[in-house]
């Protein structure tokens, strides 16, 4: 099988290595160095997809990042990826791709009926039609539109590929390895600057690969190759191909995606698929070049109509002819370069030049080569449906308004050049106020906001000599300022053909009686007529016109359509283009894989996992774990086939009757030292702290300045100036920041140091009537009697040779202790407790039993201290000191906080003593009241009381203090439950708190 | 992502810091009588400035120091950073 459109001996591909691939189920081959696009064109495949709205046939338009058409679904190594540009995807062995947005096939697509209905699909069609009736949106319109639209299908499988993130600093980041990028990188590198040079394609050199120039007696490509190999050898330079700098963020932070493995059949072992670079650059040199502009004419979206520069690139880089009977339609000299390349390779092109009488070296060369050139000629319309077959052409008047007699000439492709649009996206993203440059009819960067400089074609400089000169100078100057080195490099002699001015012509008028679609945006099917409708309907701001018509809103972000859209709006509005202004460029410049953005933070790695030192013991003993913030905590220890409810009930019951042990390592711990430590506590907590003796613990509540409870916990005075504070698991980090804030900014005169010691201590809570007996056996040399270690007492002890802290504090409401040892000894402590506890029938208990125990005791916790409640609401008002000021005290006098019917925590019991109450349910007076039924409160926490053997909940209830004994209803519309309940005291067990003191 | 010069550690990326609001707010002294208005101004009322703004940041993943940063809220330009104990001039 031969490749009908492949030239011999032309191009940079490796003809020794054939590569086979599949497109839409058919086998083809190409060569190493091909893109999917170049290989398909070489094989004569010109139809690759269907357009977004009208499902018109789509071919290839460009040869790189600007491609609006050739978007395919890619299959690689058992994975699939949508939205892949065939013009960017390098060919690899076994590559498979399919067309998107067509059904049942690209050749026969049912959606193409839209093309004949296009009169019904004008601008704003979706807005106008699908708004009514409203109820139709979710069920009928949206699913239909979703099915019809789309540029491929995302994989629903877990992505097994690895993506990495990298942070890098450099002196100069240079985006693009064309002439300006190479020259500036070289000059800066020679001055010793740390340089990163990024090129989005696989080959370095940009336009030097395709232009007929001579630099220092070398071809452009030879010169580029020489510079690149020298740069690669320099230790201060990082050169990256397949790397797109797509976003310019604040403080010169740029983000680049490096496609490491996308061009390979399979990612190599230990390699990522892509790497996202976060680069902080002192200076950014934007050398992103320019993108050729199309000229607008009838049916200008027919496959075979493409950018003239793309045709040249396919020819010179890939040895591929985009057609054998090409028509070149140009308003400037660039089209001639393409025509000359065709001619040199034995293909006779015809040039239509909108200019009347251009004179330049390039034009002369074309004339000398005997190329057929028609001046003052335009393409009126392309003819052919799935491929260009001919073109209607005509002479155009000098004022560009009148068309002459329409002739039809045969051609199999139309290569269009409407001059060049600088790629200003990155400059614009950085905050640069761009300006309109009249002579090139396009925007260029204006005054920089951040440290960025735009060079070469991206800055509207289109001659090589000038580009190289200014780039060498800029690279040298900027690097000199950073490194203080001044290594002059000799400037090479540049030979290029001189060109002349372009014709500011961009849109061919419609001939009388013809109604051709003339497309501006090729990916979103936005035609001239759509913009006209939008303006007729009163849209004026270019930002509104964009959104109404979707011009420039496709995945190519209007790289080839924006300027022509602006030209049209300004023409209809009778304004100049700069007055219309362009829409805002936002990152990313090109689509970026979600995987690359996420990086390694996938699944379990999306957040850190914190485990206590006793974790492996829990695992071995059938713990079922639960996420508590970033901690993993045992929820219950499963025995046989028991479920969560049964297991937690068993564990909680054992605490009430015997003794249980719970891993409380996750509690936040803060070590506080200094002569003013007591004073700090006294200001932070609502109760009094100045008289707490050494060896005693105290429960405390801390508020935010707005009076809301921030956290609670116990703090123990270890020695004269040394305290040990505990916080809830969730608030540990916030409380530390809170203390640091007051110590550093508000009361710097306090001589106190705070540091987190959460990780340093392993904690075990031993709770239950037999806990003292157990403790005595654990610490035979310590007096842990009620007198020796009273409630809220503290002592240090010796746990079989390990130093331990013993606190007599209780969360369960039982007689309880907390033992802390250094983390490394945590497992030893735990195993000793379990071993010695056997005779007391000890069982470990998890967070579910822990919750049950605290709920039925009426101890408030995170679900009540939820950032919306004040001390009164939690029945903590007894802890508010009247004698001293503390953080948040002044806020408690607010009217809402002192209202008579202020909400308060209460207990809730179902009347049938059977039905469990869902957390989050609402409390109402009358379950049959019309909606909205006034809500009196909400269920904050629910459990099955092991003491009473019936369901019990805590609730935050309006006027809670006067509601005890009331009968209300719990309503959970989500669970479709209505439960009659009685309001009781929140202290459902041991209301006098005798057990903890026993 | 901003690049903030911690007066203790040097230039660091924004993701090492956490934001702490207006740095010019002074907490009323403890025990001092304050009117409702004064208290509301301290707790709630903040200007939403466009332009230069002195604000607090904590170098959370670094030295844990609270610092004062003068930043342009519109352009993100950072003019000056101070230690917690340095007065805004």
Helix content range of chain A? 10-25%
Give a short account of the largest sheet of chain A.
7 strands, mixed
> Cα-atom Rg of chain B, whole angstroms?
14 Å
Q: What pair of chains forms the biggest interface?
A: A-B, 25 and 26 residues
CATH superfamily placement of one domain in chain A? FAD/NAD(P)-binding domain
Level-1 CATH class name of one domain in chain A: Alpha Beta
Shape of chain A: elongated
User: What is the count of DSSP helices of chain A, taking H or I runs of 4+ residues?
Assistant: 24
Structural overview:
The complex is a heterodimer of chains A (998) and B (89). Chain A is of the alpha+beta class. Among the domains of chain A are: 14-126, 2Fe-2S iron-sulphur cluster binding domain, sarcosine oxidase, alpha subunit, N-terminal domain (Ubiquitin-like (UB roll)); 165-290 and 422-495, FAD/NAD(P)-binding domain, CATH 3.50.50.60; 294-418, FAD/NAD(P)-binding domain, CATH 3.50.50.60; 607-655, no CATH class; 854-992, Gyrase A, domain 2. Helices cover 23% and strands 28% of the residues of chain A. In chain A, the strands form 13 sheets. In chain A, strands 8, 9, 12, 13, 14, 15 and 28 form a 7-stranded mixed β-sheet that branches. A 6-stranded mixed β-sheet of chain A has the order 41-42-43-40-34-44. Chain A has a 6-stranded antiparallel barrel with strand order 45-48-47-46-49-50. The longest helix of chain A is centred in the middle third of the chain and has 20 residues, at 464-483. Chain A is elongated, with a radius of gyration of 38 Å. Chain A starts with 13 loop residues before the first strand and ends in a 14-residue tail after the last strand. Chain B has a single domain (1-24, 50-89), classed as Folate-binding fold (2-Layer Sandwich). Helices cover 9% and strands 37% of the residues of chain B. In chain B, a hairpin with a 7-residue loop joins β4 (52-58) and β5 (66-72). The radius of gyration of chain B is 14 Å and the shape is globular. The model of chain B has no long low-confidence stretch (mean pLDDT 96). The interface between A and B is medium-sized, with 25 and 26 residues.
